[in-house]
Amino acid sequence: MQVKYFIILIALVILGAVIDLIRREKMTFKYAVNWFLGCVIALFFAIYDSLLITLSKWAGFSLPSNFIFFSLLVFVIFLTLRLTLFINEQNSRTEALAQAVARLELQLKKIKATEK
Amino acid sequence: MLSKVLVIIPAYNEEKSIARLIAEIRSAAPFVDILVINDHSRDDTEAQALSAGADVITLPFNLGIGGAVQTGYKAAAEMNYDIAIQLDGDGQHDPRYLADLIRPIADHRLDLCIGSRFLLHDTSFKSTALRRVGIGFFRKLLQWMTGLYLTDPTSGFRACNRKLLLQFAEYYPIDFPEPEAIKMARRHNARVGEIAVKMRERQGGQSSIRYFATLYYMLKVTFAILIDALKKKPKESRYAG
Q1: Interface pTM (ipTM) of the complex?
Q2: How many domains is chain B built from?
Q3: Do A29 and B224 touch (CB under 8 A)?
Q4: pTM above 0.95, yes or no
Q5: What domain range is B62 assigned to?
Q6: CB of A107 within 8 Å of any CB in chain B?
C-alpha cells in the first residue's frame, strides 16, 4: 500500500518542480508538456490502481508490475524521440545562426575595407 | 515634445499585403517609424517591405509570432522609442485607428492600449464558433485573474509605452502570446484599456492559429496565465537606462 503513496509523492514533486521551472522562465510549456502528461497519468493510476490492474489483465500481462515497467519504457522511448526532435531543431537553428553571423561578418569587413 | 513611435509589424509570407499596408500606415500616421519583422518568410515579403520604405529585420529562422514581436520590442528598447505599436502584417488591422490607439498612451492615461473589434456593435467580423468560445473564455479568465474586463483579449493590435516595452523586450510569451501579455502587463502594474477598432478580412497570408491547434493553445495560454500569477513582482529590465 505504501508504494501507492510513494508514487503519488514522486509525481507531485516532479509536477511541482516543472511548474516552478516554468514560473522562473527556465522552461517553456512546449517542453513541459511531456512531463505534465507523464505526471498526470502516473497520478491517475496511482489513485485508481484497480483500473491499472484491470487494464494490465486486458492487455494480457500476467503481472501488473510488468505492465507498469512496459508503460514506463514506452514513455521513456517516446520522451527520447521528442528530445531527438528538439535537438535536431536546435541543430538546424544554430547552423542558420552561424551562417547568418558569418555573412554579416563578411559584409562588415567589406564596409570597413571601403571606409579605409 | 512629440513621442517617438515605432510600429512593429510581424510578417510571415505576406508579400501580397505588406506593401499596401505600409503605404496605408504612411498616409494615416506619417509621424511613425515602421519596422517589419520578417519571420523567415519563404516569399518576397522582405523585398516588398523594403521597397515600400520600411525598415526590415529578417530572422534567420522562423520564431513564431511571439519571438518575432519581441524582436521588435528589443529594437524599440535599443533605439529609444517612447511608444511601440503592434500591427499584424496580414492587413487585418486598419492603420486608420493608429492615432486612436496612440492617444491614451501619449496622454499618459494608459500603459497598454488594445484595439478591440467588439466595442463597436458591428457584426461584419466573421469568426469560427470555436474561436468565439475561446475569446469568451479568455475574457472571463483575465477578468478573474486581473479584475479587468477586456472585450478582445486576443487582439494583436496594441500600443504600449516605454515602461512596458522594456519589460516586453526582457520577456515576451511565445505561441499565441496576446492574452498572456495582458496578464504580464498587469503584473507590472500597467494600466490596460481598450479602444474600438474595425478589423478587416485578412488580405493574404494565413492565421497563425490553425483550427486543430486552437484547443492546445487554449490549454497552453490558460496555464501560462495561471503560472504568471505565481511569478515575482516587477524587476528592472536589462534594457532600461
Answers
A1: 0.76
A2: 1
A3: yes
A4: no
A5: 5-228
A6: no
